[in-house]
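User: Could you go from structure to sequence for me? I need the amino acid at each position, not a summary. Structure tokens:
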């Protein structure tokens, strides 16, 4: 969790990424609740679980993220909740992409720019 403590929240790019994530999360909950007529609490909990899994696995290899999404889709088909799982998979992917950008931004610093020169 030390990597998140070093995150500069005063940088406007980071705030834009965080705001984009918040919009994606709210949109996922609203689409699940309004378009697919699912209970709001259940959708919100599922989306929170997706985000928690993404945060725990954000440093993992790409094949692991693909496996997680495929397993979720299979479970969604078996449980007859494919629409909810698709929304969750999209939010999972959005979370991974935003975390990659946030961590990439954090890793760039004076040492990495000097190494590039």
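Assistant: Here is the amino acid at each position, in order:
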């Amino acid at each position: 969790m030390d990597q998140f403590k070093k995150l500069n929240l005063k940088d406007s790019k980071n705030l834009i990424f965080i705001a984009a994530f918040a919009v994606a999360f709210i949109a996922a909950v609203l689409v699940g609740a309004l378009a697919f007529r699912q209970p709001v609490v259940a959708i919100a909990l599922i989306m929170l679980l997706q985000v928690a899994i993404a945060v725990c696995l954000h440093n993992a290899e790409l094949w692991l993220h693909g496996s997680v999404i495929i397993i979720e889709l299979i479970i969604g088909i078996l449980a007859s909740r494919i629409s909810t799982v698709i929304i969750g998979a999209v939010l999972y992917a959005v979370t991974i992409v935003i975390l990659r950008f946030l961590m990439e931004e954090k890793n760039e610093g004076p040492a990495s720019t000097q190494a590039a020169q």
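One structural detail worth keeping in mind: The longest helix spans residues 82-107.
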